Amino acid sequence: MTTLLKRVKTLPAGFVWGGATAAYQVEGATQIAGKGKTMWDDYLKKQGRFAPDPASDFYHLYPEDIELAKLYGLNAIRLSIAWTRIFPRGAGKPNQAGVAYYHRLFKCCLANGLTPYVSLHHFDSPQALFETGDWLNRNNIDKFVAYADFCFKEFSEVKNWFTINELISLAFSQYIQGNFPPNHRFDVTGAIQAQHNELLAHARVVNLFKSKGYSGRIGLIHVLQPIYPYPDNAANRHAAALEDAFMNRFLLDGTFKGAYTAETMALINEILTANHAKLTIEPGDMEILKQAATQNDYFGLNYYQPTFVAAYQGESTNVFNGTGEKGTSAFKFKGVAMHVKNPTVPTTDWDWNIYPKGLYDVLKRVTTEYPNSHTIYITENGLGQKEQTAGVGQLLSDDKRIDFIDQHVAALLKARTEGVNVQGYFVWSLQDQFSWANGYNKRYGLFYVDFATQAREIKKSALWFKALGATLKPNA
Ligand code: BGP
């Protein structure tokens, strides 16, 4: 078994070694047990490319998936609660069938030695609230706070909470890239306002969690994507700073400083001016952010890839690679930057750069610039690729994935030896699942899912995960 291990040979004592999922991507069962619609249901139906059911049918098969996770050496799992299983229309009376489901699920995790790390929102806003403006409508923040409060009270068996997953991905995909509903393209006002409002929602929930004295830990999850100028020159460095402000820095400032610094706002304002856009901050907002900034117990950091950019002043255009045909993506953002290919960096079929040093760089950056983030977990990292069944009882060889994860875990351990307080790693993803804008052929799992039969198959990366998990000392 240990011959599987290449760079990383052991994990530090007490390390959290987990697999990640998200409700809408694994559960399926979107129409049963009183569940309400999310913003995806009608949209996906209308679009007709792929359906959210049965996904990996985790709603029914979770005992099997959790058993596999345990067998293959995991000690933690990332899950999210589907808001619309609890409150079908986002607010009102709780749906007891949904509540009971999550109690069963958490119980099963705990019984199998998997600590649940639970997000309240993972891209799946209730349709009823989406129709009123989603995060752009501040009344929906009140509804999120009420839903969070309900969950904290009800699910006291959960001790590790995240408010919102990847605030930027949601805002960017909804309002810039246009590949998440409501599919706006380069609506810069929408994107920056959604970021601010999501932060506000997060901060209000953290403040409530602490003021009510709920037990456990709370934080949020940002995906960080280092932006490197390419080639490195003054104009491209400025473009990188602009895109970094929009993708990373605005949210990091708001989360851990409780303020958007003057330098950050100068960059953001340059982008807003170039795009005739505006950000509205209401009286009292910054006090809420400030209060929350020192109360996060930990920080969930998702990392997939960096972006290489050059300066760009032309009109905005975007071609999204949602099919895995290498070299089909293009992105140019007026007054910000254009994405360029760095020929020294390999890419996936979805044009994602494979660059483990980027993880090291963001870990160092966060620790240096945002000391309030203090304890970090890598809450997602992984490789999406097309894969085919190896046949019943055969091992699916995903050596590229092993190499990818191995290199990234090595990068995080290097940062750790240099003082970065990173305490865990969750691979995206536990099993193959539904990918929002790519459907079912972009697979990330340690376990292969045959979406027609729902059979699970073991991938070699699961064996690698197990071998490394076995180096963990049992919890004292
Ligand atoms: C993150 C999301 C996940 C997951 C992952 C892979 O942004 O939190 O939900 O989907 O990215 O992305 P994709 O499925 O687009 O390849």
Automatic annotation (TrEMBL):
Belongs to the glycosyl hydrolase 1 family. PROSITE patterns: GLYCOSYL_HYDROL_F1_1, GLYCOSYL_HYDROL_F1_2. The keyword Hydrolase applies. The active site is at residue 380. It is an enzyme of class 3 (hydrolase). Pathway: Carbohydrate metabolism; lactose degradation; D-galactose 6-phosphate and beta-D-glucose from lactose 6-phosphate: step 1/1. InterPro entries: 6P-beta-galactosidase (IPR005928), GH (IPR017853), GH_1_N_CS (IPR033132), Glyco_hydro_1 (IPR001360), Glyco_hydro_1_AS (IPR018120). It catalyses: a 6-phospho-beta-D-galactoside + H2O = D-galactose 6-phosphate + an alcohol. Keywords: Glycosidase, Hydrolase. One of its GO terms (cellular component) is cytosol. It holds the Pfam family Glyco_hydro_1. Its EC number is 3.2.1.85. It comes from Loigolactobacillus rennini DSM 20253. This is 6-phospho-beta-galactosidase. The keyword Hydrolase applies. GO terms for biological process: lactose catabolic process via tagatose-6-phosphate. One of its GO terms (molecular function) is beta-glucosidase activity. PANTHER family: GLYCOSYL HYDROLASE, LP05116P.
